[in-house]
């Protein structure tokens, strides 16, 4: 199997809960006891750390602080209305 050759598996954006990701995490959780040499890295900017750590048997957590960028909300209703009136 090709999984035999993997040493590290990285799953990004794990906070986006959908059927495929939940299924993948369930399979990986079942696989880890069979492959103690496999390292699983879950990444997300908005992850529920306690939930995911406890799901994977109190897995260690590494937090890297990120930068926040200001967001400016601009409503363009009048611009769009003007474009479609021409």
UniProtKB/TrEMBL annotation:
Record-annotated Helicase ATP-binding domain positions: 1-65
Transmembrane segments: 68-84
Coiled coil, from the record: none
Keyword annotations: ATP-binding, Helicase, Hydrolase, Membrane, Nucleotide-binding, Transmembrane, Transmembrane helix
GO MF terms held by the record: helicase activity; hydrolase activity; RNA binding
PROSITE patterns, alphabetized: HELICASE_ATP_BIND_1 (PS51192)
Keyword DNA-binding carried by entry: no
Protein name as annotated: Helicase ATP-binding domain-containing protein
């Amino acid at each position: 199997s090709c999984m035999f050759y993997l040493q590290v598996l990285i799953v990004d954006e794990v906070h986006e809960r959908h059927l495929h990701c939940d299924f993948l995490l369930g399979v990986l959780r079942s696989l880890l006891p069979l492959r103690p040499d496999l390292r699983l890295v879950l990444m997300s900017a908005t992850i529920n750390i306690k939930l995911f750590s406890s799901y994977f048997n109190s897995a260690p957590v590494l937090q890297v602080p990120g930068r926040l960028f200001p967001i400016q909300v601009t409503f363009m209703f009048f611009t769009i209305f003007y474009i479609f009136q021409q």
